[in-house]
Write a structure and sequence with these properties.
Shape: rod-shaped
Distance between the termini: 33 Å
Number of helices: 10
Helix content: 25-40%
Strand content: 25-35%
Radius of gyration: 36 Å
Largest sheet: 6 strands, antiparallel
Oligomer: single chain
Structural class: alpha+beta
Number of strands: 19
Length: 459
C-alpha cells in the first residue's frame, strides 16, 4: 500500500465483509450446498428406480408384498436393513427426502430471483440513468494497489477477451476534489440468461419429482383373465385381455380410454400408454410380468345338477372356479365336499388332474386333463384359459422431469463454458480497488494485472 496520505474511503465504497445477513445469504445459496442437495436427491431417485419399491398397499396386498420382500432382500443382500431405514424401498414416501427437496426448491428459488435481478440490473432498459459502478453486490475485495494499470488499459484487455465492459468517470460526493473512476467487467447478460435457464430447469425437474410423489402411483401386481376384465387397484382403469400367445410370450390388452391396444412381451414395458382416464394421459405405462395358464373348473352330479367347489377355507363355495397355475407352483387343490373328493390340477405334462377320496386320501384317478371327466358319478369339466400378470405405473411428472433435464443440461453446459464473472475496478486518485465475483474471478484479476499473462491470452 502507498504511504501517501489519503482521504477516508466513503462507507458506501467498502463491502461489509462481516455483515451476518450477507454471510447467511452466501452460505445458504452457495454452489456447494446446492450441489450436495442435488446429489442426495439424484442418488435417492436412482435408488428408487434400481431397487424394487414396496407395494403402495403394503401388507394389505399379501402376495405382492411377499414377492417384493423376496426380491428386495435378494437384491440388497446385507444392506437390506440399512436401505429400509433410509426408506430406499419407498422413496416416494420418504419424509427426509421431501424435506431435502423442499429445501432445494427454496434455495433455487432464491438464487433464481437473484439471477433475474442481476439480469435486470445489467440491462439499460430497466434504468433511467446510466449504470453506476459504485454499486457492489457479492463481489469480494481481492486487491488494493497504488500502481495499477490505467483503467483504459484494463478495459482494452477485457474487451479483447470478449468481456462486456462499462467505463465511467464521476465525482464522489465525499471527495469533491478527487475524481472517482470506475470500470465494470462482466459476462452479462448472456451468462445470467444461461444461469437462469439452469435454475429454471432444476426447479422444473423438482416440480416433476413432487408431482410424481404426490399424484403418481404403482400397481406391482394385477391379474387379468381372458374371460373377464379387471380394474387396476389404483387409477380405476379397466383392462381387458384380448389375446395371449404362449409361444412368443406376448399379450395384447385393451386399456380403458386408450385409442389403441397395448401389445406387451413378458419383461417389457409399454411406455406412455395414452388413456383419457388420467389427468396426465401420457404418463401411464404397463409391464407384462408373466403369463399364467389356467382352467375354468365346474362339476355336476349324476342327476346333472351343478355342484359347488371350495377353493379355500377363506372363500365361499362357488359353482365355477378359475384356477390359475403359476410356473413355480406344483398345482392347485380344490374340494368337492358333497362328492367327498379333492381335485389337484397341475401343468405337469401339459395338464394333469389327480382326484383323491376324502377323508381316506386314496387316489381315485391320475390322468391328463380332458374337457370332461366322469369320476364316481361326478362329472368334472375343464375349460383351458390364460391369464396375465401386469404391473402398472403412473408418473404424471415425467414430462416435466425430461423437459427440465434438457433445459438444466443446456444451462449447465453454457455456464461452464461462459461462467458469470463480475469485476469492479475503482480508482480513487491514489489507489485502485479490485472487487470480483464468480468462478475464476480471482484468476481474471491476476491476468488483467499481469502484462505477460494478458498478452498470452490476447486473441
Amino acid at each position: 500500500m502507498s504511504s501517501k496520505p489519503t482521504t477516508a474511503q466513503p462507507v458506501t465504497d467498502a463491502l461489509e465483509q462481516r455483515d451476518p445477513w450477507r454471510t447467511a445469504w452466501l452460505v445458504t445459496t452457495h454452489d456447494v450446498l446446492v450441489i450436495a442437495l442435488a446429489v442426495i436427491i439424484a442418488a435417492a431417485l436412482i435408488a428408487g428406480y434400481v431397487l424394487p419399491q414396496m407395494p403402495t398397499g403394503g401388507t394389505s396386498e399379501p402376495l405382492a408384498y411377499s414377492q417384493w420382500q423376496t426380491q428386495a432382500r435378494t437384491m440388497a443382500g446385507p444392506f437390506f436393513d440399512i436401505a429400509s431405514v433410509l426408506s430406499l424401498f419407498s422413496v416416494a414416501q420418504a419424509f427426509w427426502l421431501r424435506i431435502i427437496i423442499a429445501a432445494l426448491i427454496v434455495i433455487l428459488g432464491l438464487r433464481l430471483v437473484d439471477r433475474v435481478s442481476r439480469l435486470a440490473s445489467s440491462l439499460p432498459l430497466f434504468h433511467s440513468a446510466p449504470l453506476r459502478g459504485d454499486i457492489l453486490r457479492d463481489e469480494e475485495r481481492m486487491r488494493v494497489m497504488d500502481n495499477a494499470p490505467a483503467l483504459t488499459d484494463i478495459a482494452m484487455r477485457a474487451r479483447q477477451w470478449r468481456y462486456h465492459v462499462a467505463l465511467s468517470q464521476t465525482t464522489s460526493p465525499s471527495e469533491s476534489t478527487n475524481t472517482l473512476s470506475w470500470l465494470v467487467i462482466d459476462h452479462a447478460p448472456l451468462s445470467e440468461v444461461f444461469s437462469i435457464g439452469l435454475h429454471l430447469g432444476m426447479l422444473i425437474i423438482l416440480a416433476g419429482v413432487v408431482l410424481n410423489s404426490s399424484q403418481g402411483w404403482d400397481v406391482t401386481r394385477q391379474q387379468v383373465d381372458t374371460d373377464s376384465p379387471a380394474t387396476l387397484q389404483r387409477g380405476n382403469i379397466g383392462l381387458q385381455l384380448t389375446s395371449v400367445d404362449d409361444v412368443t410370450q406376448n399379450a395384447v390388452l385393451t386399456v380403458q380410454g386408450a385409442p389403441l391396444p397395448a401389445s406387451l412381451t413378458v419383461g417389457a414395458r409399454a411406455a406412455l400408454v395414452w388413456t383419457s382416464q388420467l389427468q396426465a394421459p401420457c404418463c401411464f405405462s404397463l409391464r407384462l410380468n408373466e403369463l399364467i395358464p389356467g382352467y375354468h373348473v365346474s362339476a355336476i352330479d349324476h342327476d346333472g345338477k351343478p355342484m359347488t367347489i371350495t377353493v379355500s377355507s377363506y372363500a365361499e363355495p362357488v359353482r365355477d372356479v378359475l384356477l390359475t397355475i403359476r410356473r413355480d407352483e406344483p398345482g392347485r387343490l380344490v374340494a368337492l365336499e358333497s362328492a367327498r373328493m379333492a381335485v389337484l390340477v397341475s401343468e405337469d405334462h401339459g395338464g394333469r388332474v389327480q382326484v383323491y377320496g376324502v377323508p381316506q386320501g386314496n387316489v381315485m384317478t391320475d390322468t391328463a386333463i380332458s374337457a370332461s371327466m366322469v369320476i364316481s358319478n361326478t362329472t368334472l369339466k375343464f375349460r383351458p384359459t390364460m391369464s396375465v400378470v401386469v404391473a402398472a405405473q403412473y408418473r404424471p411428472g415425467d414430462m416435466l422431469i425430461w423437459f427440465g433435464g434438457v433445459l438444466a443440461a443446456l444451462g449447465l453446459l453454457a455456464v461452464t463454458l461462459w461462467p458469470m464473472q463480475r469485476l469492479v475496478v475503482r480508482h480513487h486518485g491514489y489507489w485502485t480497488e479490485f472487487y470480483a465475483y464468480g468462478r475464476g474471478a480471482r484468476k481474471l484479476v491476476r491476468a488483467l494485472l499481469n502484462q505477460e499473462a494478458a498478452q498470452s491470452n490476447d486473441h
